[in-house]
Amino acid sequence: MRSLVTSFPPSKRMSEHFLSSFDMDCTADTKMEIVQCMGSFQDGVAEKCSDYFQRYRRSTHVTPKSYLTFIQGYKTTYKEKHAEVQILSNRINTGLEKLKEASESVAALSRELEVKEKELQIANEKADMVLKEVTVKTQAAENMKGDVQKVKDKAQAIVDSITVDKAITEEKLEAAKPALEEAEAALQQFQKDTITEEVVELLSPYFEMVDYNIETAKRVCGNVAGLCLWTKAVAVFFSINKEVLPLKANLAIQEKRLTSAMLDLQKAQEELGAKQEQLDIVQAEYENAMREKQTLLEDAERCRHKMQTASSLISGLAGEKERWTEQSKEFAMQTKTLVGDVLLATAFLSYSGPFNQEFHSLLLNDWQKEMKSRKIPFHNNLNLIEMLTDAPTIREWNLQGLPNDDLSIQNRIIVTKASRNPLLIDPQTQGKIWIKNKEGRNDLQVIEMLVLSKSLKAYNMDVSC
Predict the structure, then answer these.
(1) Final residue of a domain: which of 255, 282, 314?
(2) pLDDT digits (tens, 9 = 90+) for 84-119
(3) 281, 297, 314 — which closes off a domain?
(4) What angle do CA 307, 309, 315 make, to 5 degrees?
(5) I need a surface site. Which of 117, 230, 294, 339 has the fewest CB within 10 A?
(6) Within its chain, how far is the Cα of 332 from the centroid?
């Protein structure tokens, strides 16, 4: 028996049916060529079954189930591999996008820093200008303080002098007050301003007489005895007033000086207040300018720090950028060729199991020629082993007892990746040993063929009964 199916005319229509709504990253024309190519693969494998039988007398075949498995396997594998490539591509492209953003950020920060440095220079110039004005007005205020202090000291000296003179005058006035009041009382009807030193000198000889007193005057003169008291009052008033008047005059002069000094002091203090107000204004302007300068300085420093951090990141990842760029291109190419790569991979999983290494190569060569003729993109040097498995898995298989040649690895891929349970023809028991080691931890149940045959017979007897 060469094969059960050598031709399967409806295959192309079936693949078109199952793939029409399937999302694939290719053009509509490429998708239609893949649909056509699947049918060609099915027909080509049917022919290879006949050739295989002619050469090795080993019968194998393909069926509609094989074709349906091929189509479903293509959809499953393409979806899985496309997701893997997209995840890796997105990671790389995200990294490249971040580097691009960082580069743009550095450029923006550089422009921002340039603006801030210009603003900082202007702020420095403004602060220096205000500082000069503050220095000038501070010096003027200090000079004014000195002038005010001089005026204040002068006024204080006058106050101190007047205080002393006033105390002396008041003391003398207080002492002379009783006599002066008595004299003034005696001279109420007399113009005291007409009393002169000449009048007092004319009266002095009389005052020296022993009997020039009120008792003698009363005895001799009777009612005019009061003139005696009056003349004495004139002398006493003149004597006291002669000493008090200069004191009063000096006190009046000093008070005028004090009034003038206090006016000068008030004026100086007003000028000092005006200078201080001007100083406070420019001082506030200076402090505001310094705050603006400090704010700009801190902003510029933050901007410079961000730029340095981003520049360091870009510099550190310069080598990675080149590698990521190449990987991004590779992922883009993988996405483009994935429709063809998965077609080869799933055809291999679906059809190559019964064949030896020679026919594996023949089938792959035929499939690649067919795909090239239909302009279906795929990697020319596609390594199916690398696409369908990885190095750690292969090493694990080797530790589990299988050889490391390509045919053994391919067979292992078919066993683990194919959608249907495989039948192993294993005369050297390598596959058996490998399966036992691989599945032993999963409570593998081993049934001998003799036991299986007896079980089936017993089952048939039960059914017939």
Answers:
(1) 314
(2) 889 988 988 888 888 787 777 778 877 877 887 787
(3) 314
(4) 100
(5) 294
(6) 35
Q: What is the DSSP string of 222-284?
A: GGGGHHHHHHHHHHHHHHHHHHHHHHHHHHHHHHHHHHHHHHHHHHHHHHHHHHHHHHHHHHH
Domain count, the chain: 2
Helices 318-351/357-373 angle, 10° precision: 110
Q: Do 258 and 127 share a structural domain?
A: yes
Is 31 among the domain residues? no
- pTM for the whole structure: 0.55
Decide if 154 is inside a domain: yes
In a domain, 65, yes or no: no
Based on the fold, state whether residues 122 and 257 are members of the same structural domain. yes
Cα end-to-end span (Å), the chain: 35
Mind listing the pLDDT tens digit for each residue in 315-357?
A: 776 677 778 888 888 888 888 988 999 999 899 888 888 888 8
Domain region containing 143: 111-314
**CA dihedral sign, ordered 324, 328, 333, 337:** positive
